[in-house]
């Protein structure tokens, strides 16, 4: 050890291998002790030295450098045996599927880690100059995880949902992957590529928002003279992340003097806490440390030097003018980008241990004092263990007398009993890693691997309501669901069992019968042409007597048959012979339509004005009444040159039959109008009458209908219904009298069908109706010169008894040689084949059909038409008969292979089991015999115990049951859904959104309920009641899905979570404010400040915890600056006598000034509540509208600012950059203390003692603002 007196720095001589970490520490030490210049010289020399030897060595990497450890093969074999033992344990029913999965995962994870250590040991001892070893362990490139994948094993991988696949990749890249292993590993590789591409943008956007919210935070003053600060136990406690006192306090300044017992000052106020000083304080065990923090700084729109502390790049107090807000934003945002690109470099390999495992250092005997406060619990692997509630010390002694002492903290899990012998590296205890774990509730469905009969063992059922309000059955205690072997078969509905329980049957013997019954009476018909096995019952047969069917002899596709009535009307038949028809379906369409116009025009249903009709009939509706048609010819002209060559001018009268364009003649006389843009010529038929100028003003010039007998103009009386339209020809006003065609549409009569003879027919079921449907809207204008169909006439079927069991069919019958008639029949169709096929294919049952009726036989309703005979598909014993929830009979057939004998060679008195008892593999059947199988004791004789094979499934507490005891199940049917907590995959894909969720203060789904105050908690009548020491009770409603975290009568602290779920920061702030304001009776500003302070520490810890889970450490002060910006606003709830508005957002310090002013003049002060804003909202609610407008919602921000007449004082960096001014930051300005200004007058010296000029300007502006506010209040 040497001492350099000039630098006053201790220099430690070191001799050893320098890797990346040592190099980093060396540079930090030199930089900290010698400054920038000397450090850069040393860095250059180290660089030259390393490059020189790197050039000389010429390291290269070849395939031979990738050496696989020899122990790998034996390790894989041992691990496979352990996994197989776990699988057997699961099959016997000792562990659940989740515990099996977790155990397999941990077995392979431990094997992978052990192999990793073997790789390191092998390189270190056998080949220390291996190129791969040098590269990875010097920190030049790569890491231990990548080396393990190259020469060890890739290990466990995650699927696209983040779930671990329990099939590990046993190969490494040196050996090469199999096809299956390659596909499994592709998930993580692809995820890494996509993640790198997409998440970088998210991280960059987070940085932008952080910069925007904190860009105006600058070190503007030396000291804010605050008396407040953060205590050591606020920064480091059980809820804070896994950071040491040194990590959280180095570089801060003391907020109050540190004294010892005799009140001697050990450290004065504003002492900088260095790393060495904190080490000394830790040795002295001084707990009463109060340090300054940006959270407690009194500076307005800035942080003072003393509250900020060190500039961490230099380990010195920050300079005035430093833009610390920008630094804070970059410090939080940059690791997001870095982590995004670094997360999946290992290919998505899972390596998370849920617990810290304590292993025995050597073989020996374990002993410890029996912990009185210990509970018997199951571990994640399904083994029994003790959860200790106090600190316990373990002792391990071997035969040589060596003793090892291991201390276990409260909450650890003991896996071995006292006095038990343990071997080297045996896991004897586990300590939960609660700090960085993010657990989430998940479920896993248990499916049966066999078909059979279900039995419950030790299962206690309770019925509760789930989140959707459905009734579900849950298991209160751990128990077994047994599935005993057997073949399950479902029988058709309403089948009658012939076989009896316990009957032994051969394949082909009848097991059940089912009768086929009809619902309606009628004549039996068999469809001989059909290939399907079905019975048709003709219930009705009705013939249309007053019409004949004319069959179309032409075979051209699309030609239709004609239905001709006695009155001569002809209809085209739209339905094919023997087709099924529904109620209201169209049978035929009228061939000759009498409602057809000569040209286009306008249609209306009434004589009201065009826009006065409120209800307009839609197209395709039934119609009866009167139609009015105003004709109008419209011609479409494709060429615009033809329009230009028209001989008749626009808006002139044209006679009938005149050629307007080549080969086109008018059909009526009227006024011609040309639409050049639309390339159309229209002719409105009618007569033109000139309007008398004298009576011009008295005429109501509105287009409309004129009824007969009414005057039109100039004593012209209408002889019939007309439509008048005012037009202008050559600038002269005319009235065009247009003809109106009237069509009367009468209601048509119904055509009744003549009924054939049916004894039980009480009334006619069918009618054929004539309906007229209009497909034009009211006042619809049709542009055409061709005829237009106004109405269509249809024949439709009206079925009165429209039963779903009866089927209506359309038939054409031959009356005699040349005459055919239309018949409508109603059938009941009984499809036997569908029933047989369904059950024979799906349920593997043989079914035969026996008909009991003949063709054309008349049957009454509920007659037996046929009988289905159901046969045993396999040889066996009828073991069970059940009627399931769908009212379907199910049977279980036991085969010989389902029952196995176990020889016992024991007396009846020595047998330990009874018939019907459930036994597992290894259970003692007698004093000398163990069971070779799991199942149920079926029978016992003198030599054998017969066991019906079965499979037990262990069901954990809280599982949802999907079956009932005694029910029959098929293979892969659901038995239960296990509910458990799993580790959430916390990589940066979840990490970045988590940070964003906290900083944006998003609403959290299903948050936990927080204790409103301290006291004793109890659950009564679906409410949580918290009673404090004074007897005050607060009741909180909760739902059944909320999981209670406390036991009745236990003491809870303020804002302690009472139910499971994440903590909502908004609810936490509200609960804290209500407590401090209503319970503690603090002043409203103090209640706000105290609530903010506790929430700020919570948010800082949450952000730190998320980053630390990724191995990234950020200084607290950066997060504190951002969090302070989020927690600086309050919302006005009641304005009192001030000019504020309810809902207005203001800074807390502004409201405090207004409150003080109001109370000074005896006015009612405003009431307000604290508000947590996300970084985006905080940016948009900035005092600077220029900064807010440049961030988001530019139009809204600028509009509101203009309406409110806002002023921007240009305090921040961003607004000054936008305007084009110099930014109010930078550490290069001259800084003077005790400034002396000498004037021309002799012996006159003005001396000012101020911290800085900026401080004076700020205080002057602040005083002006106070004065202005006071004047406004006085006014």
TrEMBL record:
Which Enzyme Commission number(s) are listed?
2.7.7.6
Which Gene Ontology terms cover its molecular function?
Answer: DNA binding; DNA-directed RNA polymerase activity; metal ion binding
**Segments forming domain RNA polymerase Rpb1:** 8-66, 95-174, 176-482, 1092-1181
Question: Could you tell me the keywords of this UniProt record?
Answer: DNA-directed RNA polymerase, Metal-binding, Nucleotidyltransferase, Plastid, Transcription, Transferase, Zinc
Cellular component per GO, a single term: DNA-directed RNA polymerase complex
User: Does the record's keyword annotation contain 4Fe-4S?
Assistant: no
Q: Which GO terms describe its biological process?
A: DNA-templated transcription
- Keyword Repeat found: no
Pfam hit, one: RNA_pol_Rpb1_5
NCBIfam families per UniProt: rpoC2_cyan
Q: Which PANTHER family match?
A: DNA-DIRECTED RNA POLYMERASE (PTHR19376), DNA-DIRECTED RNA POLYMERASE SUBUNIT BETA (PTHR19376:SF68)
Q: What is this protein called?
A: DNA-directed RNA polymerase
